[in-house]
Structure formats: structure tokens, C-alpha cells
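Sat 14:20. Reprocessing the chain from the morning session after the first attempt stalled halfway. Input below, unchanged.
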Amino acid sequence: MTAPVPDGPDLPDVPVAGEPDGPTAGSTATPPATPTPADIVSVVASGDDRAFEAGLRPRQLADFVGQQRVREQVALLLESALRRGRPPDHVLLSGPPGLGKTSLAMILAAELGAAIRLTSGPAIERAGDLVALLTSLAPGEVLFIDEIHRIARPAEELLYAAMEDFRVDVMLGKGAGATAIPLDVAPFTLVGATTRGGLLTGPLRDRFGFVGHLDFYAPAELEQVLTRSARLLGVPLRPDGGAEIAGRSRGTPRVANRLLRRVRDYAEVRADGIVTREVARAALAVYDVDELGLDRLDRAVLEALVRRFGGGPVGLSTLGVAVGEEPETVEEVAEPFLVREGLLARTPRGRVATPHGWHHLGLAPPEPRQPGPALFDLPAPAT
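Finished this time. C-alpha cells:
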């Protein structure tokens, strides 16, 4: 069943069905809990983030900030499909979370004037789940599957024929008496999103007519995102305040919008409500977000590596014990950003702090070790 998008200040004017991660239209959601400092710079969207982002999503491709190359490619894809009067090719969007893959999918549907059905790979556990979804699609509808690399293998194999021939084969019975019943599927456009493009199987990737990769945003682009979000939210944001927030947003619009909300709270409670550079700095200091965007866990990992272990190399398990976190948390939450910023390096012997990491903590890196004598080098004989 197709339901309208929840009302918001700037939403795509397109029907949406089956969005699994947020409150449904007309439902009464429980007020979100106050986020902890550890959640502030997380690129993973919470339920509160999804409800907030729904009101800020651009409704047209021209309103989408950043990703210039992908925007141009998607514009050509849409224009060509509209001129032919046929659904566009299937689209695969890859890249880190929080960069706008879902927004692009909704923009694509809005530009086509089509409905969009939202689901995720983990939600499709059986082939029957996918059959029910595909056979209920209207002609020209857009099907968006988030984290498509996590779709169940039987459902993925069923998706091949649906993408190529717009049909699915349903097996009835087992063994020698099994019968395949072909079911037609209305022409549709599949938009798949993934944060782990390397985990997609070759046959599935090859069936997408267009593959786009979203990169991290530059600070200037994030300032545009913040300016637009502040305007929609009615937050008086000064240019210097936007620049301060953008520089600590990890190149991710989702993080930038989350920081804007927290700075807005601080400005309303402890200042005059206007977000300036000084207000932004004071607010982000409360939430332990430093000049590069490192939070408490990031700094704890870097400081443990530098101050306790002399810069490394240190094993992941040892580093996890030193900061009081599971090794998986250190590897999946803190390390990606530290490595991307050049503060930490992964080596075969363990994690090593780079000179940039030492300087970020206000410390001088140690001098490079001088190579010792070779194993079989002998001292020169005395004369």
C-alpha cells in the first residue's frame, strides 16, 4: 500500500511506500532522547535523524548540493528517459553513509513524477518477500533498496530476471514435480544503495545501467548544506558560524545537520540564539567535537596510541582494552575517520600514529630510528 510522504518544509512531492526506518505518516512518534556526545559525529542515522532529514531533503536535482559529477550523470539519465517515455536504467549508488544516496533516489522518482517504494537489503530475507514486492509495483515506479549488498542470495538471484526481463519465476513444489510459474512485473527502475560496493556480486552489479559513487563533501559544499538547512529550520546562522560547523562535519551532510541542531540548542539556551563562530566553538566543545571533527572516542584512540604506546605499532585488541571499547568498535567507528584524516595508519605489525597525529595532540613526533648494523657486518680491524 502506498502512503504519502510525511509533511515537511521541503519534501519531494512523490508517494512513498514501505520506508522501514522511520515513523509512518500520521503516526505519533515517541520524542527522541537527547543524543550523547558519542552519537554526535556518527555517520549512522538514528530514528531521530531520519525524521529530521525527511524535512530537509531536496525535492529537485537542482537543489541537491555537491556531487557535481554524479548530479550531471543522473540529469542526463533522467532527461533521456523522459524523452523516450520509458523508465530509466537501473541505478546503483555507492559511497559512505550520510552523503545523500536516499535523497538522490527520491529526487529521481520526483523528477520522473513516479512513486517510490523504500526497503532495505536485510528486510528481504526470502525470495517470496521480493516476489510480493515486485508484483505489487505500478508501471514506472521506483524501487529503492538500501544496503543492497545484504540482500539474501535466493532473493538476489530472483532479482536478476526482474531487472532484465521484468518477470519473476515462482517455483511450486519440490524435486522432479516442481513447476516454475512466470509472473510478469511492471516496468520499474531499481535504485540500489550500498556502503560496501566491493561486497556486491558481479552478476548483480552488471545489471545496473548506471553506477555512481558519492564522495565526501568539501567544507565549502557543507557550508551550502548548512545555509539551506538553517533557512528551512529558521536558525539565524552567520557565515563564520557555518564555516566553523562545516570544518568539523567529517565531510558528511548528515553530521553537519546534526551538529547544526546541537549548536542551535546551545545558542538558544546559553546565547542570544544567533549561531556565530564563537557560539559554534563553545557548543561543540560541550559535545567533545574538536577542530577536525574528532569526538571523545577518536581522541581516546589517538591519545592512547601516542601517550601510552609511543606511537605504536599496537595491536587492535590492545588498543581496544586501552580505551575501554571492543576492538570491533575501534575498527569500525573510530579508525575509518582517523585513517582518512592521516592521523593513524594500519600496518602489518599494528596501528601506528602518523606525524600528523602527533601534531594534532600538540606533541612532537619522535625522531626516526637509525638503522642498526647488518647481521653479518663485522667491525673494521684495528690498525
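The longest helix spans residues 253-270.
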